[in-house]
Amino acid sequence: MTGSETVETDDGARLWVERSGPGEPLVLCHGGPGLWDMFGDVTDLLADVTPVVRWDQRGCGRSERCAGPWTSERFVADLDAVRRHFGLDRMALLGHSWGAQLVLSYALAHPERVSTLVYVAGTGIGPDADWHSAHRANFRARLADHPERLARFQELTDRPWLTEDEERERAVLQWSAEFEDRAGALEPARRMADPWFAINDECNRALNDERERVWGTPELYDACKSLDVPVLIVDGARDIRPRTAVDSLERALPRVCRVILPDAGHLPWVEDPKGFREAVRTAL
Question: Which of 208, 138, 130, 150 is nearest to 179 (CA)?
Fold first, then answer.
């Protein structure tokens, strides 16, 4: 690693960034919203493929806490500040989950600044109704494989106030449902929570509310049909978010390749590192 740096945005927000080495990097955009970069495993996995840039989004993780604004437009501008900081004319982008929505939004706003887009475990361009109810049902079914986990998660969810340790425990239980390997799911979920930073719930609510209001429009579909950027979609077939939600995005994009890793969940690089690495290497 070259060490962490600070990017200051045009409105004065200070963002934590880290670059893994010299050369044209792959810029990684983490999920959430309201979480932080958890791409240490990806950085190691791609070490002989590409350097990477990691960053914590506005008001999250190691970035300075701020009052927002919590909008996709603002987060797209923040990502562009990261691009300018490293002097990149064009970026290869990889976004995971909410980060997949962010990099797609960036590419739609600035296609001339994107060389390649890797869209990992997103939820497509349709309305939340395409996947939300199935996601909730699949989540509870996964946790119910271990009734003690479901009971403890529900207990913590029902409490009006949690200590920091309890917030971390609740997140680990929630994240354990993201892995197909039920017996071993707690171990990678705990890695996601190490280091632990407080989840920015205000950011999470605002950006999820925005997606519910404005995603799934004919205008978004038409914009994707006109996107002249090569896109790789990477899915874990065992993601608890139904992969059919991404079908409309795949149909809309004119330059798209899709790789579905059959034995992986929401973090496919954890459960199929070889398949994930090969897919990204080929795209780059």
Answer: 138
Question: In degrees rounded to 5, what are phi and psi of residue 76?
Answer: -60, -45
146-204 pLDDT, tens digit per residue, is 999 999 999 999 999 999 999 999 999 999 999 998 889 999 999 999 999 999 999 99
Token code pair at residue 115: 């060389």
Query: How many angstroms separate the CA atoms of 265 and 184, rounded?
Result: 13
Are 50 and 26 a contacting pair, CB within 8 Å? yes
Write the burial class of residue 43 (CB in 10 Å: 0-12 exposed, 13-18 middle, 19+ buried): buried
In Å, how far are 102, 207, 208, 216, 244 from 129, measured between CA atoms?
20, 16, 13, 10, 12
User: What confidence tens digit (pLDDT) does each residue in 65-101 have?
Assistant: 998 999 999 999 999 999 999 999 999 999 999 999 9
CA 121 – CA 98 distance, rounded (Å): 9
E-strand ranges in the chain read 4-8, 14-19, 26-29, 52-55, 91-96, 114-120, 231-236, 256-261
257's tokens: 């390749």
Ordered by start, the domain boundaries in the chain are 4-131+199-283, 133-192
Q: What is the pTM of this model?
A: 0.97
Q: Report the distance separating Cα 259 and Cα 3, nearest Å.
A: 33
CATH class of 4-131+199-283: alpha beta
Do 216 and 181 contact (CB within 8 A), yes or no? no
Which structure tokens are listed for 3? 């060490």
Concatenate the DSSP letters of all residues of 86-127 into one string.
TT-SSEEEEEETHHHHHHHHHHHH-GGGEEEEEEES---SS-
